[in-house]
Amino acid sequence: MSKTIRLTMAQALTRFLSRQMTQIDGKKVPIFGGVWAIFGHGNVAGIGEALYQVRDELPTFRAHNEQAMSHAAIAYGKANFRRRFMAATSSIGPGALNMVTAAALAHVNRLPVLFLPGDIFANRLPDPVLQQAEDFSDGTASVNDCFRPVSRYFDRITRPEQIIPALNRAMQVLTDPAECGPVTLSLCQDVQAEAYDYPESLFAERVWTPRRLRPDRNELAAAVAALKGAKKPLVIAGGGVLYSQASDELAKLVQGAGIPVCETQGGKSSLPDDHPLNMAAVGVTGTSAANRLAEEADVVLAVGTRLQDFTTGSWALFKNAGRTIIGLNTQVFDAGKHRALPLVADAAEGLAELSAALKGWKAQSAWTDNAMKGKTDWQTAAAKVTASTNAAYPSDAQVIGAVQRAMGSGVTLLHAAGGLPGELHKLWQAGAPGSYHAEYGFSTMGYEIAGGLGVKMAKPDQEVVVMVGDGSYLMLNSEIATSVMLGLKLTIVLLDNRGYGCINRLQMATGGANFNNLLKDARHEVMPDVDFAAHAASLGAVAEKVASIAELETALAKAKKNDKTTVLVIDTDPLVSTEAGGHWWDVAVPEVSSRPQVNAARKEYEEKKQKQSVGD
């Protein structure tokens, strides 16, 4: 008979997590970087005590907001290219529901994170317990059911032995390149404390390494034939290139074949910005260099991308009627989108085999030369909009230019929602793979500061720069205090345009009146005048408000020498965005309106809709 050890369910869970390993650069390390925890009555006695017992092997970190700590955990996984990840535990009710937005973020972006929310009593004797939401028609329902549609795997643990298969399944999902995403194990609070005789084998150390799927022969042959027949081939590099750590294979393929590359938000930094074949951002927030090639391309090799609407210009960007898309992806669902030729494989393996099969073949020199000229033209346009200025309210692009000049390409730059993703995707000159960290799959306001904290935990020796708007800052800023508490320095550049400037511009572009976005256009008795520097200082950060681009560059130089989180605030213009580059985005305009501006916008919208691909 196998040996057993008597533990509570929570103790078995935490001991198991502490024994899961991976290998990074030939060195064995724990696959879980730790557990974020905010305790309440639904998890403090069970999971809380269990985490205390393994605190040396599996560190626990305290946060100030459940959604924020989950963002930090997710950013940690992304910064580690999904090779390592974290868990997050909360009490029941509001604590658990605060993590659902983060779960959706991880689900959309295919990022690993383990959620461990407390749940109601399995025995139901004390029902309804504090924070329990009762369903009048379903005695098994819990608010944690909200995690189901945004989890790759969901399980509710109602008996202590159920944790055994649940943990094994959780690890399979978290480490699988195709299935990767959030896992939720909903832990009934009485069951957390119940004991069971667990087999000792459950706690044996296990090393998890990424599965690298090689392409099917027939799919590879079809992809090679399509590329060899191309006159105007183009590669779109998505996040899968980075997660597979396939940048070298990508560079080898495109250099050997002379194929220009463009990058999605998730794939930016797959190649350094100064690579001659890197046309940078593509799509709605794309460069003119990339988008004009995408319009003409007859074969598009889409590597590790979901091909979301910002990448494809709402499927109006690719204008070559005879084009072929090759979907190189670990996930079949993504590989076959829009009738693509699927090439189901790990990005590194797939690119390597394509390189070998294409050896000796090159794209037509006129196409490659034309691409490089377009890049030069774009760089000239980008330099103009990012140049220094004495304007009282500089543009986002001018702030980006200042950060780039002061900090260089050696930092890791992080951002999320609002206007900054569009400007940074076009204009930021990324260096090493993973140095550009965008959350633009779910475009979650409030991700920025907490995400920066997670990146810093993954890259403690690197300078992490967070760029955030005033709207996102006000939504979720509490982890500034956590970064100070943990001694994890961030440099935060806060652009204050006094409202939701990005959506205000979109509102105007669709014919809408200026309404409810900028603070001045919202219902108010008194206009808010937030002293962001004083607020950040109250959380323990070094903080300063600067009055110009020149002052910002000086402050950034000083921030490099600071040993704790620094917040630099600058007022910006809410109406200005970079006109160069970009592409139409499908945002539906009302068919009927009493306002002529909306009717004019609807007419233009219908004209643009005619250019969308239908059924492709």
From TrEMBL:
GO terms for molecular function: 3D-(3,5/4)-trihydroxycyclohexane-1,2-dione hydrolase activity. Keywords: Hydrolase, Thiamine pyrophosphate. CDD domains: TPP_IolD, TPP_PYR_POX_like. It comes from the Bacteria. Residues 418-569 form the Thiamine pyrophosphate enzyme TPP-binding domain. Residues 220-354 form the Thiamine pyrophosphate enzyme central domain. SUPFAM superfamilies: DHS-like NAD/FAD-binding domain, Thiamin diphosphate-binding fold (THDP-binding). This is 3D-(3,5/4)-trihydroxycyclohexane-1,2-dione acylhydrolase (Decyclizing). It comes from Mesorhizobium argentiipisi.
